Amino acid sequence: MPKKGSLGKVERLVVKLSGSLFQPDVKYSDIQPFTKLFSDLRRSGIKMVLVAGGGKNARTYINAARGLGADESTLDELGIMVSRLNAMLMIVGLGESAYPSVPTSLAEVAKAFNETGLVVVGGLHPGQSTNAVACLIAERIRADLFLNTTSVDGVYTANPKTSKAAKRLSTVSTKELEKILSGSAMGAGTYELMDPVALRIIERSKIPSRITLCSTEVIKQVLNGENVGTILTSGK
User: pTM for the complete prediction?
Assistant: First the structure.
């Protein structure tokens, strides 16, 4: 846990929690280290919004519904429901530290943030990834940092799970990342590291952003000023 005063200028933080944190067989011991960290950070004075991804559970429901003939917007709604269930699991673990329910609109998120300083949300609207939701919230609350935690430790030149030649980048621009991700699927439940909507929001408001592994130790390192993951800059 970083000591109070060692966190630089980060006073308003948005963290997108990787869907990989919420496995189908998720246990309390998977979640507890994160809820303890975020409770400690709130007590240290940092105000934050956590955005839960849908993960494998969302994809399971989406794939089943797609097989049943559901349209893409309905599939998005299923993904949102699952992400909100994941958000509620985080709220249970955070207890009185957090706003007690999952907001369902940007206005509700802003109101809850002003009241408690620690809010957990899932998806908000069909057609938006939880990455885009996190960026919109970072823009709305004027976050000092948007931290996108994923199942990999940063941005690579290619998919590190399938390419041995893939190299991790310490810094990447929104334009460069868009090229790297070009060709990625955009259907419900298939969003990759980032999507074009999220990248446009980061660009228009120049939101300080970083992509890292979803790990309590890595989040601490970032807040202690260590250079981990990949810094995402706005522009070319």
Answer: 0.91
Query: DSSP secondary structure string, 185-206?
Result: --STT---S--HHHHHHHHHHT
C-alpha 10/C-alpha 207 separation (Å) is: 12
Which pLDDT tens digit goes with each residue over 194-224?
888 999 999 999 999 999 999 999 999 999 9
Q: Which residues of 43-80 are buried (b: 16+ CB within 10 A; e: fewer)?
A: eeebbbbbbbbbbbbbbebbeebbeeebeeebbbbbbb
Bridge partners of residue 150, in order along the sequence = 213
Three-state DSSP class for 163? coil
> Alpha carbon of 185 to those of 45, 172, 181, 191: distances in Å?
39, 21, 9, 7
**Token pair for residue 118?**
């620690």
* Spatial separation of the C-alpha atoms in residues 155 and 116, rounded to whole Å: 33
